[in-house]
Amino acid sequence: MTKVTMTVNGKPASGDVEGRTLLVQFLRENLRLTGTHVGCDTSQCGACVVHVDGKAVKSCTMLAAEADGAEVTTIEGMANADGSLNTIQQAFQDHHGLQCGFCTPGMVMSASALLADNPRPTEAEVRDYLEGNICRCTGYHNIVKAIMAASGQDVGAIAAE
Amino acid sequence: MYAFDFEKPGSIADAVAALKDEDAQALGGGQTLIPTLKQRLAMPSKLVSLTGIAEMQGISKAGGEIVIGGATPHAAVADGVAGDYPALAELAAHIGDPAVRNRGTIGGSLANNDPAACYPAAALGSGATIVTDRREIVADDYFQGMFTTALDEGEIVTGVRFPVPEKASYMKFEQPASRFALVGVFVAKYADGVRVAVTGASEEGVFRWSEAEAALSSDFSPAALDGLSVPADGMISDLHGSGAYRAHLVAVMAKRAVAAAG
Ligand SMILES: Cc1cc2nc3c(=O)[nH]c(=O)nc-3n(C[C@H](O)[C@H](O)[C@H](O)COP(=O)(O)OP(=O)(O)OC[C@H]3O[C@@H](n4cnc5c(N)ncnc54)[C@H](O)[C@@H]3O)c2cc1C
Ligand code: FES
Ligand code: FES
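^ inputs. structure came back:
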């Protein structure tokens, strides 16, 4: 066992992990932050995306020990300080960007990484960026729409109501 | 995953020492190795992370070549060489998805030498030099068949040097489920000739298509490839495409790459 210490959603967090403990296990099982989901466990689906030092990563494909000393943000850290939904989360609600909601934490984390890099992406850029986030419910249109709306763009012309 | 110890050295020398232990294995971005461990296809006693080694990170220029640290993630390559070597930047920018590109490293990709991976095509197509903790290996000697390279046990890819071509392009026909190349062709025009490297297609892994190189060296245009083809024999046949299909794609993607390189 080794001790890891990181900052998770702005707060210090530490715990004992095995070499093989994945970051997602540490988040879900040690810290009980179960908003980060495991959809595939094979690095394909993106349900487990979190930010490590500001970059989107698949937490099922990173060892907890690799995140020692890092700043980690999960979906639990995305709401506004008063607990209300942030702009991206609110846009998902407003534009029906989720159905079962399983993929949503990863979608929101990826969207937020995209908008940090590229505040006004085109529709094609949004779709390209979501390459590694799989949704079995929505057909993606409303997710794309929500992200475009969250970036302050007019979404009237995007398919599917 | 079987249990293993974890170490994160801060220098190449310490990493080399840590890898001397029996069954110790290097860990780059983990984007191939962690899925492999989950399937219990590997049983290292210890993983030695290369991500904390500053001397293996980043991009610099030296003597007309671009030097990329072996632990540099794909996303950093995509950003860092966009001005100097756009074809390489484009290739890096289309590996997997953004989260994979934030972790996966060039050294890990070259060490793994997946027959459908993108970087092997860039390295072979550019005549790159693979720099390790103990020697330099030219790309023509480095790739030795599917998942096989010239690396010895415990040898670390510390960097890669790419000579910058006059023109180049990489065209990848993506396998949509895996996002790897079903067939990818890297074409690069240098003052002394054209190099064409093909990934995704052959059972022997990445290879140079010398017939196309000769044709393009005298006439760098898509038409120069008219009538040329690679034999379907020895091409990968699987549920995603037959050998004949892949052989056909090689010529198509090569033409597209030449057209895009301009
Ligand atoms: C969803 C998904 C999509 C992908 N799509 C693509 C794609 O389109 N194209 C593509 O090319 N790749 C793709 N990949 C693979 C990805 O690029 C990997 O990052 C890469 O193949 C391995 O790099 P890594 O740093 O993650 O290495 P790791 O997974 O950490 O290691 C891989 C192997 O290399 C060894 N190793 C690692 N670093 C070094 C080093 N510096 N020196 C010596 N040995 C080392 C390890 O011991 C291990 O055997 C994809 C992966 C995923 C999960
Ligand atoms: S659970 Fe991590 S990518 Fe699917
Ligand atoms: S909303 Fe159900 S998987 Fe995306």
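Chain B touches chain A through 27 residues (CB under 8 Å). The domain at 56-163 of chain B is CATH 3.30.465.10 (Uridine Diphospho-n-acetylenolpyruvylglucosamine Reductase; domain 3).
thumbs up if we can close this ticket
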